[in-house]
């Protein structure tokens, strides 16, 4: 309810009183869209107008397209709200927020098996995209500094990576003038290995980018095999080519459910790792992390010292100001759940994904492109030629509320189109059953539509033949 002057119908006079939000005058006009209005409106009216428009968005709980976290505990929500007005970069003003930030970096350094050290080095970022940019720059500057010291040319840096890398790596190469050397994929092969890498590296290679938990299929590159190659090359040719592991999706899963898999700082040439706190770190967007093997992997000329916020403060970020809420939320999750809690959640997601994958495969209507062995992720194709595509099925599922993407694979494998289902913490076994039911209903509805069209076309050609 709002207290406002309301105009009467015939008299044209106004009277003061309490009216429903939906009966006040702000509901009679179009909501301001492209120009700041001359006058404002009551808070409840502004809220309701925007709230009602946002109902047109998809339901986050039914969003199986994104890896990004859509649910946190009420206590985490409360901490986030209490920290939203704190600018994370203001370390002098909010020293405890920075202290908590450093605690998380140290926890991740140990989680990723960095060599023992007093203080681990890393930083929170807006997301993995910023972390990737910072990680790539550290490799470029480290390479350049080595070349300068050796009195060798340093004007033509390159980096080697698969076409399975995220778009952000294409951006990095273009924005920071590094030649990208892409390893082509092919149908059935969506990761890279040492043999692929060996053909493309040289003395100007700043790093090899590897991925654990690819966007396309949820698989991992052969990081251990690539490391063995680069160790051999370093000893034989003197090229100290580091590895960056893009663990945006997989770095928060592997330590808990794939403990024997060697992909992290246990491997000698892995120098930097990024991960997304807002994916399987189970925090809302946006939060990413970049962790260094040790201080030697962050060149001093990349770190800026500023004092205009108070004390002397070193900073290595692309983005300066940001809220402190998500950093606090990450710390909450880590101490709230611990390794045991994260392990239980990750295993639950993996088991749900395997359960759903089994049902989809057993239906006989689909071809599985990847199964949930590393990540709680499923990719599949429509089997045969039923007369409709994966894109059609994706659209049909949207009618049930489910958001499931259909997309083509990277260059050289773009003929393969798949649908992807990503499990999140709040996707239960019951929801998996409901999704499968709606998947089958959508498939059957499209099949019936195709049969009707074909029957009509056949009847039309018969009539045309008689005429």
Walk me through what this model shows:
With 467 residues, the chain is α/β, with parallel strands linked by helices. It has 11 helices and 15 strands. The strands form 4 sheets. The protein has a 7-stranded mixed beta sheet, sandwiched between helices. The chain is globular.
What key attributes describe this structure?
MYOD Basic-Helix-Loop-Helix Domain, subunit B, Aspartate Aminotransferase, domain 2, alpha/beta, 467 residues, four-stranded antiparallel β-sheet, Aspartate Aminotransferase, domain 1, 3 domains, seven-stranded mixed β-sheet
Summarize the structure.
The protein contains eleven helices and 15 strands. With 467 residues, it is α/β, with parallel strands linked by helices. Strand 6, helix 7 and strand 7 (242-247) form a beta-alpha-beta unit.
Taking all residues together, what is the mean pLDDT?
A: 92
Overall, the morphology is globular
Reported CATH architecture of the largest domain = 3-Layer(aba) Sandwich
* Cα distance spanning the termini: 70 Å
Strand order of the largest sheet: 3-9-8-7-6-4-5
Following the backbone from N to C, one meets helices and strands in this order, namely EEHHHEHEHEHEHEHEEEEHEEHEEH
Structural class call reads alpha/beta
> CATH-wise, what's the superfamily of the largest domain?
Type I PLP-dependent aspartate aminotransferase-like (Major domain)
Count up the helices.
11
Number of beta strands: 15
- Content of β-strand: 15-25%
**How much helicity do the residues have?**
25-40%
Name of the top-level CATH class of the largest domain: Alpha Beta
Domain count: 3
Give a quick account of the main beta sheet: strands, pairing sense, barrel closure: 7 strands, mixed
Q: Which ranges are low-confidence, i.e. pLDDT below 50, for 5 or more consecutive residues?
A: none
Q: What is the third-level CATH name, the topology of the largest domain?
A: Aspartate Aminotransferase, domain 2
What is the gyration radius calculated from CA atoms? 27 Å
